[in-house]
Specification:
The protein has 10 helices and 12 strands. With about 300 residues, the chain is α/β, with parallel strands linked by helices. α8 links the parallel β8 and β9.
Amino acid sequence: MNSAYNRVFKPDRLSLGLVVPLEAHQNNPVANMDRHIERIQLAEALGFSSVWLRDVPFNVPTFGDAGQLYDPFVYLGYLAAQTNKIALGVASIVLPLRHPAQVAKAAASADVLSGGRLLLGIASGDRPEEYPAMNMTFEDRGERFRQSVDYIRQMASSRPHFANAYGEVSGGIDMLPKPSSGQLPLLITGGSQQHPDWIAQNGDGWMTYPHNVDAQAHIIDKYRAGIKSFDLPNKPVMQSLYIDLAENPDTKSHPIHLGFRSGSKYLIEYLSSLENIGVNHVALNLRFNNNDVEQTMKQLASDILPNFSHEE
């Protein structure tokens, strides 16, 4: 795969990234985007392996999160010019809301312009309100997701010849640029309305959500058993995690939305347990952090990253 995939995902090892926006906006769904470039550049300088954007076309009140506000592909191009080595991930592009030719073109462009630093999460979408706004149907998004993946894969080949519901390409035209490594790394999010066998066969990795460690171990074991049953090489697993990092390293854990508040000692223990069960990457989300975000990033870099630094 590309340089980002090879650097972020190491067998039996865990790396750490951050979810953008890098600010604590608590219960406000709309971030201020304060110092957004400076903070992403700080994340790179501190040694985080990745930053992750989201695809949120509309600010849906019931969803409660407008993401980083900017279109992910436009933002990827900007970040490619403002950073040097940090992986640029999207978690995740909602494929049924976009034509796959446009996704393939934009993603390959971001990948090439960034020097192979794109990690492309893909999803079927979970906000029904967005679909009628784009004259799309929600119920059949799973079928469109599969056809979109096929279309994007075909665009990586030279002068492709195929047809599906999104269009027909007869071999007389080609799409440029091609991804930096010849293939875009596609990371499937959750179930995406698909059978687990299809996910095991068609993704280059899998994004899942936080669960308690025993439950997560069971989920990962089933995913990797599916991969093995098709005689495929192992594939990475990543998850998100909301944290509120206390200054006192001994602070005990307390649950928050999709994560916890704790000191650094518990966070290290928890992340180590994820590494032991086969999680390869965790994207930390600081939305509910109570301390200064830049100070927390530095605290994470000094107290947490050295335990999970596996750069060659």
